Amino acid sequence: MARRNVLFVDDDPFFLEAVGDFLQEQGYSVRRVADGLEALGAVREDRPDLILLDLIMPKIDGGRVCRYLREDPRFQEIPIVVFSALAARDIVHLPGVSADAYVAKGPLQVVTKNILAAFEYIETHGRSLPAEEAVFGYEGFRPRRLVSELLSLKRDFDLLLQTMSEGFLKADEENRIFYVNPSALVMLERQERELIGVSLWEAFGTGFHESLRPAIERMRTDPAARKKELIVTLHERTLKASFAALWEEEVYSGLLLLLEDISNPRRSQPA
Predict the structure, then answer these.
(1) Is 158 part of any domain?
(2) Domain range for residue 30?
């Protein structure tokens, strides 16, 4: 049988190395990435045969990765195996998760057997299996209460961002957009899948390059310059754009961007 290409996505360096090495020893060709944004880029560059996907990750979580891939006709048939320390009851509450099998994280010697079992099950039975049939390693699994509480807070925060009238975007240290709410999509007149992973310059158009770039470059090099406001005109809207730099342990990690339609605020409301 030809070597199967696996995209392994996990922000845990231990699992990324150990499980990746194990799969290579089993004859799989493995590409490893550490967050959801990198995962989407990797899928677009070289379509894998299988995806082994962690759920709780920086930038774009596994649920959103699933949703973006399932919405794209080019990639919606790729089998996805979720690999997570979350309890099954928590996974089902994560929006967008639509995997074909689920493997619990645990001791390496157990995990590797369960991943192979999940891969073999999909190859034998195909995709879109009933969730309760393609579950591996959850026997005796004890959910962590703290994780459940944090997921509940995340759901509340996501709901707030989805329903607010202001546009909200997040970009990483390379100015690539990895979150955009419905109001921002209305103001930018773009689809979500068109913006995720693209640069701020592309989202706002080359006409704003000169006004936006100096402000952002200063924020990414000067910790004291953490906020900036600009008035921009886009698609016949006058927008107040408020930028805030994100720093983690004195290292620049990206931007938050809040958009307010000051020409006619009602137009910024999501449908």
Answers:
(1) no
(2) 5-152
